Amino acid sequence: MAWITLIIAGLFEVVWAYSMKLSHGFTKLVPSVITMVMMIASFALLSFSMRTLPLGTAYTVWTGIGAVGAFIVGIAALGEQVSLMRVVAAALIVCGLVLMKLSTD
């Protein structure tokens, strides 16, 4: 259950990062509200998953999902640049997440 909660928390992190971008510095109401709600939900689920998962594992996986997810959303929804180095960097983050999962009891 902790891993599922952690993955959902990471996905919520992607949502709040994207909505924060759309809020234009918290000047647009709806994206700003979505950002705040998703931040609270993401932190709450991260906190819940940390009841059983080690701090280092939980935080690393949470931020990794957020980083790679935001990278994908940036490319898919915002037209951000795709380059070989950026893709390799994202792939290395995913490899780190897999290793972190495999190294946790």
UniProtKB/TrEMBL annotation:
<feature type="transmembrane region" description="Helical">
    <location>
        <begin position="58"/>
        <end position="78"/>
    </location>
</feature>
<feature type="transmembrane region" description="Helical">
    <location>
        <begin position="27"/>
        <end position="46"/>
    </location>
</feature>
<feature type="transmembrane region" description="Helical">
    <location>
        <begin position="84"/>
        <end position="102"/>
    </location>
</feature>
<protein>
    <recommendedName>
        <fullName>Guanidinium exporter</fullName>
    </recommendedName>
</protein>
<dbReference type="GO" id="GO:0005886">
    <property type="term" value="C:plasma membrane"/>
</dbReference>
<dbReference type="InterPro" id="IPR037185">
    <property type="entry name" value="EmrE-like"/>
</dbReference>
<keyword id="KW-1133">Transmembrane helix</keyword>
<dbReference type="GO" id="GO:0022857">
    <property type="term" value="F:transmembrane transporter activity"/>
</dbReference>
<dbReference type="Pfam" id="PF00893">
    <property type="entry name" value="Multi_Drug_Res"/>
</dbReference>
<keyword id="KW-0813">Transport</keyword>
<comment type="similarity">
    <text>Belongs to the drug/metabolite transporter (DMT) superfamily. Small multidrug resistance (SMR) (TC 2.A.7.1) family. Gdx/SugE subfamily.</text>
</comment>
<keyword id="KW-0472">Membrane</keyword>
<dbReference type="GO" id="GO:1990961">
    <property type="term" value="P:xenobiotic detoxification by transmembrane export across the plasma membrane"/>
</dbReference>
<keyword id="KW-0812">Transmembrane</keyword>
<dbReference type="InterPro" id="IPR000390">
    <property type="entry name" value="Small_drug/metabolite_transptr"/>
</dbReference>
<dbReference type="InterPro" id="IPR045324">
    <property type="entry name" value="Small_multidrug_res"/>
</dbReference>
<keyword id="KW-1003">Cell membrane</keyword>
